[in-house]
Amino acid sequence: MRAFAANWVKHMNKLIECVPNFSEGRDMTVMKRITDAIESVDGVSLLDVDPGAATNRTVVTFVGAPQAVLDAAVLAGKVSAALIDMSKHHGEHPRFGAMDVCPLVPIAGVTMEETVAYAHTLAKRLGEEAGLTIYCYENAARSAARRNLADVRCGEYEGLQERLQNPHWAPDFGPAIFQPRSGATAVGARDFLVAYNVNLNTTSSRRANAIAFDVREKGRVRREPDPLIGAIVRDANGEPLWIAGSLPCVKGIGWFIEEFGICQVSMNLTNIAITPAHVAFDEVCEKARARGIRVSGSELVGLIPLNAMLDAGRYFLHKQQRSTGISDAELIKIAVKSMGLDELYPFRPEEKIIEYVLAAKTKRKLLVDLSLKGFVEETAAESPAPGGGSVAATLGALGAALGTMVANLSAHKTGWDARWEEFSDWAERGKACHAELLALVDRDTDAFHAIMATWKMPNQTEQQKALKNAATQDAVLQAITVPFRIMEVALQSMAVASAMVDSGIPASISDAAVGALCGRAAVMGAYLNVRVNSGDLADTAARQDFLERGATLQARAIELEQDILRRVDAVLG
């Protein structure tokens, strides 16, 4: 029964993203009708609508359970085919259809293999229900020749009629005839892609293209070193030879944006674990400088994961030899200013970072988002949660924050410049502790509510009793593992406090000591929760294991606190 419940929850938590690009970026009434159709589907959250007048293209991002996402994508395909006339379309971006591309991206609980299957289902439905001519690309490609979107879209809309007459380029789904209004659509399955444009202080699209060729993975066609002719160099089979660009997993072109009067290097970062945005930015800066051009800023089209922004902030701080153990908000601010992401328009993290957009869509009120006064009053109210576990996590977070503060102050102390990286590492460790402890504040209360929810489960038949018992034991286990994790992380935070007592800025030794006191209190308070909740765990071996390991953690915390206080007393006298 427990396995069935776990599988059911996993199925319910499946989440995929859909990022259709529509060949309309100037008439927002058309786009409003398309996005209204998407939002009409239950279970779908519209995250972002990013139009571009110069490209005459709008990137839409929405997420949801797979079936809901497919339903919304089909509706969007129908509406776009009815409202967008490709025979009248002009724009800077390559395109061949009204709904030009429609990729699916696995977000949670879904493998790439499953996403490919969903993409094929979507492609079939768009062909049959929306009457669109469909090509499958990227991971959903049904042949190697169609994996690369640039190959699928070669010739663009203007060459589509001729291409459809070639049996080799018959569509994967839908009508195999040229449809002047809707053109064709590429449906794919891919990893998370970041659309990223770097702004240049030039109006020469030829020079922008040259920089794009310098950096993009595909590079440029090799030519003879004759400045007048420059004939293409070919292999024995007559195929052009290519000179690879400097950035793997990057596609790029250069173009002029009339709206802003500048050129851009427009890139798709197809694997930001290999080439993240900040690396692409710096590389374009370097290649532009070599051609006498300056980068003035950059632009994100659509959404970006939080970690990508945090990594960028850390990267630029590291170059400045500054501590990276600062708040997420400050890291994001550093990333935005370093890459000039606010040059063309304001960069609003709540609208551009996918985790923040998703969090806003849930509309759930978190304890950690309350004011300090609000949290204290909520704790004092006539409800059993938040209780001791959440308060223990809060104490631990405050203690970890104090240790982090001392590390950051020490990294900036005059005369200690050579030690900045040492203190930055400690600040990173402290930040990781207080970030996780803050998350555990709400997780502890969630664990309590999970137990309460099992009390309301039906208990009439034998099957219902078995399901209720399994759910109760799962909830009890969660109510033990959460405070146990609070113990572990709070103890880790005390190591930061201990190090700062020994080597941190002397004026803040008392702050580090208070951090240690908070950490010890968090460990002991959380252990009380482990002990009281263990009484309801049916697995006696697991219960004994939690109690024994918890006692060991508590003993270590008490011993470390006493050792820290002895060292502080020796300094303070």
SSE order and pairing:
Layout: H1 2-12, E1 15-18, E2 21-22, H2 28-39, E3 44-52, E4 57-64, H3 66-83, E5 99-108, H4 112-129, E6 133-138, H5 149-152, H6 160-163, E7 184-189, E8 194-200, H7 205-215, E9 220-221, E10 242-243, E11 250-257, E12 262-269, H8 277-290, E13 295-301, H9 306-319, H10 328-339, H11 349-352, H12 354-362, H13 372-380, H14 388-411, H15 420-455, H16 462-503, H17 509-534, H18 540-572
Parallel strand pairs: 5-7, 6-7
Antiparallel strand pairs: 1-4, 1-5, 2-4, 2-5, 3-4, 8-12, 8-13, 9-10, 11-12
Helix pairs in contact: 2-3, 3-4, 7-8, 9-10, 14-15, 14-16, 14-17, 15-16, 16-17, 16-18, 17-18
Please describe what this structure looks like.
The protein has 573 residues and is an alpha+beta fold. It folds into 3 domains: 14-189, Formiminotransferase-cyclodeaminase, Chain B, domain 1; 194-359, Formiminotransferase, C-terminal subdomain (Alpha-Beta Plaits), CATH 3.30.70.670; 365-572, Formiminotetrahydrofolate cyclodeaminase monomer, up-and-down helical bundle (Four Helix Bundle (Hemerythrin (Met), subunit A), Up-down Bundle), CATH 1.20.120. Helices cover 53% and strands 14% of the residues. The protein is built from 18 helices and 13 strands. It has helices at residues 2-12, 28-39, 66-83, 112-129, 149-152, 160-163, 205-215, 277-290, 306-319, 328-339, 349-352, 354-362, 372-380, 388-411, 420-455, 462-503, 509-534, 540-572, and strands at 15-18, 21-22, 44-52, 57-64, 99-108, 133-138, 184-189, 194-200, 220-221, 242-243, 250-257, 262-269, 295-301. The strands form 3 sheets. Strands 1, 2, 3, 4, 5, 6 and 7 form a 7-stranded mixed sheet that branches. Helix 14 runs parallel beside helix 16 (462-503). The longest helix has 42 residues, at 462-503.
